[in-house]
Fold:
Amino acid sequence: MHDTTAAYIGFNLVKGLGPVRLRRLLDVFGAATTAWAAPAAALIAAGLDAKTVASLVATRQSYDPAAVAAQLAALGASVLTWESPGYPERLRPVDGAPPVLYVLGEITPADDWAIGVVGTRQVTGYGREVTARLAADLARSKVTVVSGLARGVDTLAHSAALEAGGRTIAVLGSGLDQLYPPENRALVRRIVDGGQGAVISDYPLGTRPDAVNFPPRNRIISGLSLGVLIVEAAPGSGALITHRFALEQGREVFAVPGSIFNPQSAGTNDLLKQGAKCVTGVDDILEELQMGLVAEHVDAVLALPEDPTERTVLAWLQQDADPQHIDTIARGSGLPVHTVSSTLTLMELKGLVRQVGALQYVPVR
Structure:
């Protein structure tokens, strides 16, 4: 395991140390490895309170990177951090984006076109039919279906995407070694072994599926997605928490109308009153998000460089018609300046980018 990744995992084990505090430490110390090894006095000077520093020091003493690496290898899992080129670009700028993602399977550039599909665990017959149809139609349109692996709508959405030959990402509220619900172990294996997506978590290995873990993971479902579709949800449903995160992140919210006599549709009908986009077919989503050409976009992505760092750099260059400076690319992508510089040199030799000024680059179109 790389030292930087080991440091990020260590921080992930510290109670009370979230993304905001970790970002501050990285700003102060300049590198995750430096921050991880910093003495207690320096950590307090960097703004951590005494309780969190004590927790960090205790974790540093008990944490065994080699043992964790062995556990991850046994599971067949990988780790993405803020500094990993393969970290999902749509999730990266989100407030509270997880510093660490534990991954079974693979997140690919094709997953940039994703829709979150969530809803109640007590799904009705109507909700089952709607979920299966919409998730399958999204998958056939080469849109990745993101959900939370929970019973009900989540499970149906993942399964329908797989049956349609598409991709799906399941976001857990527990560690990867604590799959929940247990009856979905076979579904996880279908996702992973079939190469049709990923199962991810920002919780360390060993984290049990406690109720308090599930609301925070919903920020990842919406953060990975262009928009969130809520199929059925009673008032107070966890799916409505995903709706709140989606609004905070600037994502579109879609809802399926339901019977006024059905309590499981009360939440979605309220969302429609509040301005959520009404969905009666997949075209309502694709047209609203201008995703009619997703298949073509995915094919184009698959033609991108295989190297994930090159893909990241190229993606940032393609966001703007104007030339971009190396420093701008580094800040936006989260990659070190020296990595961006060497990558651009190689990409220029391959004919992927062109230098148009002092350290200014544009993609070759």
Q: What stands out?
A: The longest helix spans residues 125-140. The radius of gyration is 21 Å.
